[in-house]
Structures are given as C-alpha cells and as structure tokens.
Amino acid sequence: MNRLKYLVTFILICSRIIIYAQDTRFSQFYAAPLHTNPGFTGSTIEHRFSMNYRHQWPNIPGAFDSYHAAYDYNAAEINSGFGLIFNREDAGSFGLTTNQVSASYAYRFRLNQKTYLAPGVKFGIVSRGVDFSRLVFNDQLESNSASTVDADAITDRNVNYLNIDFGGLLYSENYWVGISARHLNNPNQSLLGNNSIAQLPITFNFQAGYKFSLSGPTVKRRNAKDITAAILYEAQEKYDQLDLGLYYNHEPFVFGFWYRGLPLIKKYEDDLRTVPQNNDAVIILVGYSVPDRNIRIGYSYDVTVSRLATNTAGAHEISMVYEIASKKKKQRSRKFIVPCAKF
Prior knowledge:
Blueprint: H1 2-21, H2 33-36, E1 47-56, E2 64-75, E3 80-91, E4 96-107, E5 109-110, E6 116-130, H3 138-143, E7 159-171, E8 175-182, E9 203-213, E10 225-236, E11 239-250, E12 253-261, E13 267-269, E14 274-276, E15 279-290, E16 295-304, H4 309-312, E17 315-324, H5 327-333
Antiparallel strand pairs: 1-2, 1-17, 2-3, 3-4, 4-6, 5-6, 6-7, 7-8, 8-9, 9-10, 10-11, 11-12, 12-15, 13-14, 15-16, 16-17
C-alpha cells in the first residue's frame, strides 16, 4: 500500500507541474468561447455548437490530448445566454484523465446604444482518475505476473469535485475586453483524499482585441475583409503566459499568426533552481467558413520555439463551430454579437 501512495503522490506532483505551467488551453481559444470566459455564453445569434481537439507534443509517449464540446443559446428576449460544456483531458502514458461537465449562464446589460456588459458564471462537476492498468509495479517484474499484490488497493481511485468559474465581457462594435477567474473554490483534486498539494489555485484570464475593417460598409458579408488583433493573458500563482497575434479575414478564409510566451525576460523560482521561461511557440492558423452554412472549420499548428523544440513536435489543433438561427433572429440579434475572432 505504501508503494501505491508513493506512486500516486509522484503522479500528482507531475500533474501539478503540468497544471501550474498552464491550465487547459486551446490555441484557437475564440473557437472555444465558453471555455475561455463564461461571459461569452450566448454571444451568438441563436444556437451555437462548438467542438475542439488538441494533440500536444506528439513525439512524447503518452502525448497530451484535450477535447472540448459545447452548446450555447442566446435568449435575446431576456438578455441571457445559457450554455452546456463537456471537457476531457488525457495526460501522459499513465492514463491520468480529467472529465468535466459544466453549465454556464451570462446576462447582457446594455450600457449605451453600442456598448454591452456581459457577466457570466460556470459551474462544473469534475471527475479525475488514473488508469492503473497502464502501470507496472516492482512485484509484477519480480514474479512475471500480470497483476500486482496491491490490486485491491488501486481500484476505484477516482475523485469528484465541484469547480466554479466567473467572468465578464465588455464589448462594442469593434472591440472587446474580458476577464475571468477559474477554480474560484480552489477544489482539491487529490486521489488520496485531503491532500493540499493537489489543490487547484485560481487561474486569472484577461482577453482583449480590436477589429479593423478593410471593407466599406456596403460590402456584402461574403466579400468582407478585416484584420483582428487580439491578446490573451493567463496567470496561475507564479506562472503566467501571453498569447498575442493577428487574424486576417477574407471571407470565406481566415489566416492567423500568433506568438505565445513572454517577450520580456522573466524568471520563475522553484525550490531547486531558477528556470527561464520566455518563449513557448508561434502559432499558424488557417480557417474556412462554409458559405451559407454557418459552419467554421479551423486548423492550427504550434511551432515550439522553446528548448523543447527538438523533442515535442509542437501541437495540432482542430476546431469546428456551427451556428443556427432563424431569419427573424438574424435581423434582431446580430447587433449583440461580440466582434472578436472566431478561431
């Protein structure tokens, strides 16, 4: 049993490093708006379905996979948005998985003719566990056995907990500014009970952007051209990260280029050494909007520029967003839509 505790503690320490380095995040974060900030809930004309998949560091055995699926609805008649979100993470070759089901709500305040404020909240139930069938213990190697003597001790090693997020969004015709905070209740995700090493710290998130139109007001949407500059900054305890980039939209295509890291010199302190963490990746994105179908498909690739560049092979990411709206809703609700990028 002691070996089991040491093993699980080691796994939690490794996962803690991953968590503190970065919370679950997507390069195409605006294609996962409810994950980025619950204030985005209902920021569509009527119905919206979104799906995201990220395959990170494919050259490493047991690469990290993230899945996201969401549905949200704009109840414009009561200035509200309602959302349902499913998240899953598979981390490492030892089968550490995290599943989350969440519900989100946002209310839209009209500050003046063109400016809106939308605070939102998200409540989620999380299930986290390790697949011990992927692990090999010392006694199995010694006895050449398919099972370990600790088999009874490693059954049912999942933990469930509540997670609470809050966010707000201020936006107008050409700009948006948002803030959010994840894990407000500091949930304990330990597989061994009340273990403070596995308590999730709050993640603070700031996003903002501006849309520059390159087309005249009379140009049809199908031929519209614009450039959108945007920023995403996240901080979790002493770790932080910045995404900064541009989207060029020429319907039906979108091209994006992003930098992820910290352009200024900064160092993080831990118990053993000082580790520089300045540059992470540059991100290349291409997106396509299916004409007259309200479907957007995006693909991005993270080109690693840190010291891990030769070992990880970057990250691949795919997104798809499908929006449905009646003609009546399209006419009445388009002015409520946040002008941020869609990938």
